[in-house]
Amino acid sequence: MAASSERREEWTPAATDYVLAHGLIGLSLRPLAAALGTSDRMLLYHFDTKDDLVAAVLFESNARAVQAVEALPRSVDLRAAVRDLWSVANSAEFEPCSRLYVEAAALGLLGREPYVSVVREANKRWLGCFVAHLIKSDVPRPIAKRAATVIGAAFLGLQLDAPLDISGAARRRAVADLADAVAALGG
After folding, report:
1. Dihedral of alpha carbons 105, 119, 56, 130, sign
2. Structurally, how many domains does the chain consist of?
3. Of 44, 19, 13, 48, which Cα lies nearest the Cα of 31?
4. CB 136 within 8 A of CB 73
5. For residue 140, what are the domain limits?
6. How far apart (Å, rounded) are the C-alpha atoms in residues 175 and 128?
7. Is residue 5 situated within a structural domain?
8. 157 in a domain, yes or no?
9. Residue-wise pLDDT tens digits, 7-22
10. Sign of the torsion formed by the C-alpha atoms of 144, 134, 168 and 177
11. What is the pLDDT of residue 187?
């Protein structure tokens, strides 16, 4: 089993890169395996099931996004924290992770596993890193928790609207309005 674990650890980042580039919905193991230089049978040997592989990819994608937020320096205030968090959520590096999350969340809404469980865990980690960033930026914990919930929900809405938004001006204004609204939570 140690070889299986080593192979999983080796393939998970590469499989995540593949899924981030090609999407989750309609994922086929044969092209993924070919991109990894193996066979679909070997993938299933090391990951047990396609769902197990998908869960590993979703956890890896979420971990990358969380690491990007954790790497942010302290924000000067709550308003700036919203803008700083948006800079990560809206970055070219993070956008594929966000798109993957939306695909998984959609499948989770249909009650499909592993999506329900993985998205629930991803939400906890994502909001937790928002709260940690806000606290690091001297926002009191009770306000940080409330603000993180509002920020997370608004960011998801903005990301869902992204393909429909012709200009970035509306999104920039929405983020500025969000920053003002969230700053009001701080009094």
Report:
1. positive
2. 1
3. 19
4. no
5. 57-185
6. 20
7. no
8. yes
9. 899 999 999 999 999 9
10. positive
11. 66
